[in-house]
Design brief:
The chain is α/β, with parallel strands linked by helices. It has five helices and eight strands. The radius of gyration is 15 Å and the shape is globular.
């Protein structure tokens, strides 16, 4: 696992020891960030809601995000995120939130430009996470939500004030990108 582009390009990240955590593959991550180019501006605020290893959030920092909120219910995963942020030398641009994703989304009081939702495929928590984002009030018109899911479990065109603007398949992985209306 590595950072693909930006100021941290080539940095290796520590991988999770548990098989319960499924980091986004480099191929999918590269595709996601290519799709985000029109929206991912320098100074963006992001939230990696099901952070796991911190792979997506750290890629966002490497590509110019000024701050990333890393959220995970697993203490081990959050410790791995912290360690990876430390390895990359970017801990000052990171906020780590432990606990349930719904409460962590509500805890963020800043406007978030890009949310990353990559829960364990069996969880199917993406609709609940979109609802929590909608209710938390920390997004704006134009906020982007990147959802990684099993492609056999497609997501709807519209959900909680978000409209699908891109939907792609990479092997068994589906990537759906929503924009706030």
């Amino acid at each position: 696992m590595r950072i693909i582009a930006g100021e941290l390009k080539g940095r290796r990240l520590l991988s999770p020891k548990s098989d319960d955590v499924r980091p986004t593959s480099d191929k999918v991550k590269e595709a996601v960030f290519s799709m985000l180019l029109p929206w991912m501006e320098s100074g963006s605020v992001c939230m990696d809601v099901f952070a796991g290893s911190g792979n997506l959030g750290l890629e966002a920092i490497s590509r110019g995000a000024s701050k990333v909120f890393f959220s995970d219910s697993s203490r081990e995963s959050l410790a791995l995120c912290r360690e990876n942020a430390k390895l990359c030398g970017v801990t000052e641009r990171c906020v780590f939130l432990s606990g349930d994703f719904r409460s962590n989304i509500r805890r963020v009081k800043e406007t978030v430009d890009v949310f990353f939702l990559d829960p364990p495929y069996a969880d199917r928590s993406i609709p609940e996470a979109l609802q929590a984002i909608d209710e938390a009030g920390n997004c704006r018109k134009g906020t982007i939500v990147v959802c990684e899911h099993r492609h056999k479990d497609p997501l709807p065109e519209q959900l909680y004030g978000f409209t699908c603007i891109k939907d792609r398949r990479y092997g068994a992985t589906g990537v759906t990108i929503y924009e706030r209306e």
